[in-house]
Each structure stands twice: as C-alpha cells, then as structure tokens.
Amino acid sequence: MARWILKSSILLYFLVVSKSIDECPKNCVCKHSSQRDGPDWIKVRCGDIVPVNSLDELDLLNIASEIVQLNLTRNRLTAFTPKIQFVALQKLDISKNQLTALYNNQFIEVPNLRRLDISGNNIKHIDVLSFANLRHLERLKLNQNEINTITKGTFKSLMALKQLDISNNPLTCDCDLLWLLGWIQKTSLKLMSNPKCASPATFKGIALRKLQIGIDIHCKSPAGSRELPVIKLEPNQSQVVFEGDTLKLVCTAPSLLDNFDVGDSQGSSYIEWLWLDSDPKNHFDEIEISNRFSIDSGLLISSLKISTLNRNHTGIWSCRLNSTQGNYSEGLMLIVISDATKYCPILTTTNNKGTYMWPRTVVNYTVTIPCESIQLNRDVSQQQAAHFCSPSGDWIHLNTSQCAYISETTKILEQFSKVNLSLTKGSIYESAKHFKNYTSNLKIFRDVMDLEYTIQTIENYVHYLPEEKELGGILMDVLNNVIELSRNYLEEADLEYNILRKIINLSEHIAEFTTAPIIHKSNIAVEEFPVKQEVFAGMTCTWYINSLNSSDRLFYCITSNRPVLSGMQDRIIEASIQIPASLFYQLQQQDIVLDRSMQRILIGMFSNGKLFPVYKKYSGLDITTAVVGVKLANFLVTNLTEPIYVMLRLPPRAIVENTIMIPVWWNATSNEGKGNWSSEGCELSHEVQDNIVFHCKQLGYYGLLQNVSNTGIVRIGAKFRLSHPAIYVGSFILFLSLFIVILTYCICYMSIQMPKKAKHSLVNMWIAVVLLIFVYVFGIYQTEDLQLCQIIGLTLHYFTLCTLFWMCVGLTTMYKRLSKNDNTIELQDDELPSDQPIQKPILGLYLIGWGVALMVCGISGAVNMKEYAAHTHCFLSSTPALSALFIPAVVLLLILSALFLLIRCAIYSSDANGHLSEGTQVTENVDLDLLEPSFPNPDHTSVRSSSTKTRSSEVEDAEHAPATQLKAYTIFLILYILTWFSCALATVKPFRFQYEEDIFSIIYAILATVLGAFTLFFYCIARNDIRTQWLLLHNWIKRKGVCFRSRNISDAAQNIPQIQIQPLPLPPAGNSPPAEIHITSRSSSRSSSHTKSNSNNSNVLKAAVNLNGSTMEEPHGARINNVNLVVLHRQQYRTNNTITNFIENPANTAQVFYNPYQSTVARRFFKKQRQHMMKRNNLTMRKCTQSDSASIISSKHITDNSSIDQSIFGTNSKVNNTNIHVEHVCKTKHRNPNVLSDSHEEISLNNVPIEKTDVKC
Hints:
Elements: H1 2-23, E1 28-33, E2 41-46, E3 67-71, E4 91-93, E5 101-102, E6 115-117, E7 125-126, E8 139-141, E9 163-165, E10 171-172, H2 179-187, E11 190-191, E12 197-199, E13 232-234, E14 239-242, E15 247-254, E16 270-275, E17 287-294, E18 299-306, E19 315-323, E20 326-337, E21 343-344, E22 347-351, E23 354-358, E24 361-362, E25 365-370, E26 384-389, E27 395-399, H3 408-417, H4 428-439, H5 448-462, H6 471-482, H7 487-497, H8 499-513, E28 524-531, E29 539-546, E30 553-558, E31 571-579, H9 583-589, E32 599-606, E33 621-623, E34 627-632, E35 644-649, H10 653-656, E36 662-667, E37 676-678, E38 682-688, E39 691-696, E40 701-707, H11 725-747, H12 756-779, H13 786-822, H14 843-864, H15 879-913, H16 918-922, H17 928-931, H18 962-988, H19 996-1021, H20 1024-1039, H21 1094-1097, E41 1103-1106, E42 1124-1127, H22 1130-1134, H23 1159-1175, H24 1203-1206
Parallel strand pairs: 2-3, 3-4, 4-6, 5-7, 6-8, 8-9, 9-11, 10-12, 14-20
Antiparallel strand pairs: 1-2, 13-15, 15-18, 16-19, 17-18, 19-20, 21-24, 22-23, 25-26, 26-27, 28-32, 29-30, 29-31, 31-35, 32-34, 33-40, 34-40, 35-39, 36-37, 36-40, 38-39, 41-42
Helix pairs in contact: 3-5, 4-6, 5-6, 5-7, 5-8, 6-8, 11-12, 11-19, 12-13, 13-14, 13-15, 13-18, 15-18, 18-19
Domain Ig-like: 229-329
Family: Belongs to the G-protein coupled receptor 2 family. Adhesion G-protein coupled receptor (ADGR) subfamily.
GO molecular function, one term: G protein-coupled receptor activity
C-alpha cells in the first residue's frame, strides 16, 4: 500500500512538473505553490538568461490567472503595459529596468497587487493617476530613481498602503512636495529609508520628515495645490461670548512667492476683514484693524479688535487674502449672548443613521456632531451630522447624509441595491433568490430606507427579465411579501420615496415579461393577455380564495363576458372583473387610434388597498375589499358606454350594515401625479350571495370605499343564517332522547343495577353529546361576532373530544372489572379474607373525561384561536388547525379499538375457562358472601361474618352481559362518528354539488334519530329495572303518596316464600342420632332453549338471603344465628304480582348484588368445594325422579359437629361476587330438563336423606 502511494505521488509530481514545463513561457522559470484548500499558484521569474525588452515577448496568457508573483528585475523594459489581466498577481518586481515615467492607469491590469517594486529605474515623472485601482497595495518602492517632486493626490487611491520608500531621489523640498508630510501623518504611513532633500540649497541634505511647514518653510498650500493657500485664523473655532466682552482676531497668510529665497518683498498681496461678506467698518465704528508684513517669516499678519461686544456682532467673521493669483479666505462664527438671545432646547433625534443629542443652542446656528457610525474608508472629519437652530428657536434641517447607517439590515440592503449585476450575469437568478430569502422576514423592515433599498434592488433586477424568465417569480414573491407590511409603514415610505406607486408599476412591468402562474401570489395576481381587437369576445377574470386557507388563491380568466356567480370546489370568489366584448369598438368611437397589431390587456388583483392610499377628499374612508383592475397599454380610457362590471366579496358585516359602500376607481393622474380614488362614473348594481356588483365607465383599478373610523377589528365574515330544517329536526329528536335517558338515570340512580363507574361514564358521555348538539344548533353560524364565533368553535371542539374521552373512561372501567374478576385469587381453607380494598375516588374519572379535553383545547386555543372563526361557520377552518381535532380524535379511536379488543378477549377468556351449570345459573345471582355463615370464635361468645360487604360500585350489570354492553358501545360510537361527519359535511359543503346541503342534512337527521332511539331503547326500554321504576313512577303519580322504594326495602304487607333452614340442635357427644334438616322450596322455571345463555344475562336478582332468629348451639357455646336461604323464582321477580322487595335484617343483613359472569371464580370455588366434600362429606346425595321442578332438599344425617365447617354453608373460603346453586342431580327422560321451567310445581321432599351433594360451575 505504501509503495502504491509512493508511486502515485511520484506520478503526480511528474504530471505537475510536465504541466509547468508545458505552460511556462520561454525564457522564464515557473514554480508551483500548492495550496491545501485551493488551486495551485505559480511564481514566475523571467530574463535570467536573455534580458526581456518588452512584455510582448512573454507568452503568459495560459497561466495569467494563476500567477501570484512576477519577477522581471534586471531586464530592459522601458514601460510596463500588460495586455492581459493578472487577477491573482500579488507581487510585482520591475526594478532595475529602463522605465522613465509612470502614466495614468499604468497598473490597472493588476488590481489585486500588494507589493510593487519599481526601484532602480530612471523615473522622473509620475502622473497623478498612475496608481489608480491599486486599492490593496501595501508596499511601494520608488527609491533610486530621478524623482524631483510628487503631485498631490498621487497616492490617494492607495488606501491600504503601509510602507513607502522614495529614498535616493533628487527631491525638491518645496510646497509641491511637502504635502506628503501631512498625508503621511494622517494615514499613519511608514516612510522607509529616511529620504533627504536635494534642493533648494537651504534644505539640501536635510531629512524630509524634519521640515516643518510655517517654521522652516511657508507654503502656498499644505497640499501642494495653488487653489487653497494657507490662511491661519486665531481663534480657529467658532466663538460664543457674552455681551460687553472684548474680542481680538488674528489672521496670518503667506505672501504669494514663486520661490522661497529670503529677501523677497511682500508683492501685491494683502488681507481684508469681512462680516457677513461685507466690510465691518460700514456697520460698526468701534472696530480696530491693523496690518503688517513679517520679513523674517514672509507672512502677512492682520488683526481685528472689538473692544465692546453686543448682540449685533453675532455672525460670520472672516479674513480674506487678496492677490493677483486669486482670493482665499478663512472664517469663524461669532455668537454674542445677551438677555434677549433665543435658544433651541436640548433635543434627541433617532433615525437610521444613529441617535444624536443636540445641546441647547443659540438661534441661527448650525450644530455639528460626529457620526455615530464611522466608515474607515472615508475622511473622518467629513463624517458629521448637522442640525440647524432656526431664528424661531426650532431645530430644522437635520442632515445625516454624511453618516453611515447603523442598522445592519439597512447596510445589507444598501449593498444589494449597489451590486453591479452586469458583472454577475451568470448568477443573477441565484443572487435574486438570496435577496428574496433575506427579505422574507418582515421583522427586518424598521426604517423606510430599508423598503427604499428593496425597491431599488428590484428595479435593478427588472432590467434582466427578458433574459431571465424565471426571475419574475422571485421578484413577485418579494413584492407579495412587501404588501404584508403595516399600512402606516407603507404610507410613511410612500411620503418620502413614492414607494406605493413604484410597487404597482413594478408588478405591471414584471407581468409584461413573465408568464403565469409563477407571478400569481397570495396578495398579488397580475397577468397580461395579448388579444386581437377584431376577434375579441370579452373577458372575465376571477380571483378565487380557499375558504379554509386564505393564502391559497387561484387566478382564472376566460374569454367570455359571462359573469361568474359561484365559486369552485373549496373556493369562494374574492374578486371578479368582466370586460365587455365591445371595448375596442367603443375606443374607435372615441377616436382613440389603435394599430392593427395585437393589443395587450393587463388584469391586476390586489388582496387589499394598502397600495392605494386615500387622500384629502375621502379622508376617514378606506378600502375594505380587494382591489381589481384592468389596463390597456398606456391609454387612459374613460366614458365607456358599456361599462366594466366588477364583483368584490363583501367586507365585514359590522361595517356594511352601518355605512354606505362607495364604488370607486383609481385615477393615477390626480393629486399631483400621486393618484387618488374617484367615484365618478361608478355605480352600485346588485348583490350576489356574499358579493357586491358594481360597474364603472373607466379603465383602472376598482374597489369599495367605506367609513371605518368607528369600527374596531376588520374581519371578513358571513352573515348569520339558519341551518337546514332537517338539522333542527334531527337535533331535537336526539336531544330529547338523551335528555330522557339522562333524567331517568339521575332520578333512578340507586335502583339501576349497574356498576357505579359505568353509570357515571354513560351519563357524562350523554351530557357531552347533548351540550355539543345545543352549541352546534344555536352557534355554528354566529359569524358576525368574531370573539363569540371563536368561543363557539372552541366549545364544539371541546365537547367533541369530551364524548370520546368519556367513552374511553367507560370502556376502561369495564375492562378493569372483567380483568379483576378473571384474575381473582382463590384462598386456602385456613386463610382469612383480605381487608376491604381501598376505593378509588370517582373524581379521577371526571379529571380524565372533562379535564384532558380541556387541556387539549386550551393549548389549541392559545396557538390557533383565530382559526376557530372561519368565514362561513364557527369552527376550525384551515387544514393545519384541524389537526388539533383530528390528531387527538384518531388517538382516542385507536385507544377505543384497543379497549374493544381487550374486553372481547377478556369475555372470551372468561367463557373458555369454564361455564356454570344449568342448575348453577338458576341461582347464580346469590352472592357467595351471603351463603357463608359466621364462624365460631374461641375468644368471643359472638360470631362475626368474615365476608366483605359487597359495594354497589362492584355490582355487575344485571340486565346486559358484557358482550352486549360492548356491542352497544360499538354501535353508539359508529353512529356518533357518522352523525358528526354528516353534520360537518352539511355545514362546510366541501363537494360543491347541487343539493349537497340538503342531502347531508337529511342524512344527519336520520342518523341523529337512530342514535337517540338506540340509546333510549337499549339503556332504558330494554332494561327491566328501568321499566320497573317507570311503572312505580306511574303508580306514584296516580296515588301521589307512594314514594320510590329500593330493592332492599321490605314490604310488610307481602308474604315472601322462604326456604326455612330449621335450627339444628347440637347433638351430644358420642353416637347420638343426627338431627334432621328440613328444607322446603318453592320455585318455578321457564322452558327455553336459551336458558344457559342470553336469558340469564338480562335477569335481575333472583335469590336473597335473610339472616333471622333461629339458633343452634355449639360445643363452646357459640351460636350461628339467622341462617335462611331464600330462592326466588325469576318469573315471580319480573311480574308485578310477585314480590319485588326483600326483607332484610337492618343490623345483620349483607348487601346482595348480581354478578353472573364471574364463572371462572365460581368454577374454582366449586372445584375446591368438591375436593373437600369428597374427603369429608357427611351428606349423601340421592337421585330424584323430578325433572322440571326445583328440588326440596332435606338432610337428616349430620355425623358430627365439624360438618358445619365442612359443608358448603360452613366453609371459610372467600370468593367475592360469585353466585352458587346447590341442587340434586336428577336424571330424567325429559329431552330438555330445565330447572327454570314455568310449571310452578311445589314439591316437598321432606325426610329424604341426602347422600351426595353435587355442585356444578
């Protein structure tokens, strides 16, 4: 690998060397200098073997752009005039040649030169522009030449110059050269090798830098120019003095001499004093003036003295040098302060050039302050801000033109406007994209100058539209963005720079060279159409707006003069203009000459009237609609016999109903060329839906003018309207059905055999639906009030989500009940039941059902509150805003789907693990807790039941099985979603076909009726407990004295058939005969093929236990009191003739509840009991021949006292919410034996010994 790299390096080296050999000119040596991140540069040295006489001898064309150093020293060059440009050249050495002069623009082909060596030549003359364009030059060597003097301004363009060497030249140290000293001090330049003077004889051999102007030499000008003689005025600054003071001014100036030899006379020069450009002696008598000439220094000296100043002396005082060669002056401002002097107050001004504080100043005085931002490439002394204090004491004429901008935005936009696009023709489109991206952020526009530079930049780009077709779309994007700026900002910019008219003209000019639709934007749509006047059949152009997204617009034109009266799908008409087919005929009638070529009709649409301000006549009014216009070339067309028809979408109803709309057109020639609106020739026609139609007799831009001075928020909203009648019908039926259900569940809350959490979930879900219906019916079209409309939209969003959340809560509680029952842990014989579980507060359900939706809607309202008020309805309008509804709704539907699957699996698992026997299902409503007797406690004489009291919140639905409940939830959810969407489609009307609202409204009414009827039937009519309560309510209304009674309240007047378990006396120790147990039972059964399945799922409580007073003794003296088993016939409970209330002992009775689907727990319990009975059974089960009646069991043999503990009634096992049934297994020949038959037979099997007990689950 290393060998391969070495070979590659050697090969690359030879390629480079060979290339340099091929490209390097003859008689030159080239050396490449490789760069890590850039191209290779070349250093060239020529003439070492054969001297070069001219640059034409060197062929440097192929490598000119790569040369960084060019060494031509020790050749025979007489001039340096390259014909090609050396862009990369940084160091040039042409020393020791035969150059005699440097001419203007000598080095223009080496613009990036940094080091220049011209030493050792015969240069005698240097033109003033010899070093023009060398802005990057840092070192210049002119030593060892024949230079006598250097003209002022020769080094002016060398802004980066740091070192200058003019040594070993015969320098003449006169005023033509000594300007160089001041320039060197000002620019901090380093003068190398200490040049010395060669003449005049007085200064020969003296170092140039040691000469002092005014001391060693008196010059005509410090810069070597004969235009500005040196005049010195002391004091040299403006003076502020008090009235009564004395002032003396001294003016000195050199006499104008051609040489500087001592002994020359004064000549014809003299100094005079001026006050406000006139002789002060003509105004003041107390002035003393004296003049003298200093022979030693060659200066003219003049002094002016004012012994007593007064306020009249305030003004500009100057001294002037008069000579045959010209007049030169210097002056100062004198301010005399008196008691009557006026002042301008302290003032702070802020603009794009900085913040300046102007001091308290005397009137008629201009104050200057250094600029806040200084440009280093300009003279610092000239960068000053000025403000004039007027005679009235006010600050006027603020001038910051010499200052740089302090805003980075303004600086950048200024650079954009000054870019020379002719040099970047290949990248104009890319630079325009950068310009667009920078101006897309409207927050950067703070000063009106920012907008002015933006428009100037667009004007520069417009010139390249014929070459760059896609450039128009970029520029139109910028203009479209500019219209979003505030109205005040645009008007302020228009006041100074006429910005608005420029924007309109630019948009029209872009349309001339750019094809649609790339110039159709959200705020501007301009297009030019070529037409032939002979075949012109009229034109209608319409601007559509998306009803859900106001920034989505469509510009569409057809060659017809038929009006457009309706919108497109999902779009409404924003503006439309209709041009008659007789347009060109009317122009001919007005003697307007048009050539036979194609005519160009320009159609323009603007989203608002910001670009068309209202002046003077219509002050207080404003354009509240879009602006649409038509133009024909540059003709001003008026007085059309067949007018232009315009249709604009109506402005806010709050304005329309309180003010008069004025149709107007834009007259660009009025108001001194600024333009203004005019109502001449325009008349209102009629209204079409939410649009107003008018016509005008002129070509131009059109709008609706209204008084908006008394209006607040300008909003475009539809007028309130009523919903479709089917909406009201369906909503009323659904509302009434749900109201009946809610009222029933609230009144009969304690009597409904349903889990507590399930009842809360259902009732709150129905309440959310009812409130949703109410708010929708009465608020969906409240679009006139913006805030009310937003609140209604937010409320609809909230109740929509609340319904789904409460459905999730209901299914979650249902799944928890099923999973809890399925996962019941069986206890061992010697284990005591666990403590009563801590009940979770019902408040948690409300926090989920109402609280989570509140948080979602709160966040959505904080972000998109304005989106809750659409144009035609009060709800979320745009697609991004609708995600606040659909995303949570989809998540909730996924959760509901998961809950549906989990509950279905739980039900299937419960059925698959084991089923209750037919006989067990008869008495499956008897809670095992009620069948457990109390156990003797050796430490106490009383017995307490160890079973936990059943809570109402754990009661399973006695009417509907879990599978049925799950189906009901599914049906309700599907109907709810379909109803919601049909209602939404009837409101929004997205498909835009005929009778769309009617169809969806009728579908909504049907679905709402089905939803209400289903809810009322399933949750009320189909429930026995609800029907019973309705019957009791009916009876109570008749009697008006009987109150509702719960199922746990006994009715003393009724006789309840009971199964009496006789007290068992405790047998003595030994083999005493066992006592007999007599059990009598009355039951009836119903013959049905569905006894084992659905018929049992909807039954109510069929068995109860009453603990009453019979007792029996035990060895330790403990008693088991009040043990009775009550078995009620299901049919008896359902009919009015049977007993509906049970007698309970208020002190000892346990709560009875119904939980038929805990088959898994029952199966485990019976399996456990069967194992115990197989081992220690003291009862024998005999077969009976009775088939269709309930058993009457008598037990005669109890072998010992422990039988109570081992029997099914004496076990200490604890299985909550599980119902059991003890029966004889009777074999018969009947095909369909069923203990629930309706035979109502009563069979007594007294004295029949029980040999075996069979328990089935």
